[in-house]
Design brief:
alpha+beta; Pectate Lyase C-like; 2 domains; four-stranded antiparallel β-sheet; 5 helices; 5peptide_repeat; Pentapeptide-BTB/POZ_domain; Pentapeptide repeat-containing protein
Length: 238
Amino acid sequence: MNSNEMNEILEQHEIWIFSRGKNGEKADLKNAKLGDAELSGVNLRSANLRGADLGGVDLRGADLNDADLRGANLRGSNLRGADLRGANLRGANLREANLRGTDLKSASLKGADLKGSDLKGADLDYTDLSSADLSNADLRGVDLNNADLQDINLTSTDLPESTFIIFGEKYFISICGDNVRVGCEVHSASEWRQFSKQDIIDMGDDWLKFHPRLLDIIDFYCGKGERPEWLKAQNDDL
């Protein structure tokens, strides 16, 4: 695709966006080869970029909000400061990409290859990172409190301060500061220690048995705390 063709697509897409779909044409760049494109700061919000080859492309500051980037090749791309809120990056290749300061809030990165990528300071609030490869990635300064981190590869990953991912337990556990995610449940360490017996029962059939183990884990990573009275009484009866 030459530069004139690309400029025409971007112009029509911008008209489509600002007319709310009444005029212009939504950018359809599915499977497009865009390795030579200059796309820094472009507006490709909601564009179809599924399977597109964007390897090494400069996308700094680009608006890719709600874009479809499933299976796209973004290896080595510069996405610093880009807006990827709500974008679908499922299965995308983001290996060694520069995602520093990128807004990935609520984006889907399920199964994405992020090996060696720079995500320092990125917004990953409610981002789906399940099954993603984040080995050797830089996540320093990232808030992972609400991110889905199940089944991810964190080999040699630089994690944010006071962030711990615990594997091998009955439920997936991540600790980010004072917030503790166990499966789909996210609560502060103090809340986990204060829940009533009925609160724990309401979480599921096996939670009563698992809860003491969870509190031991919280004590280890967050500092020792009190056990609820009902659990103390239960232990005294044993």
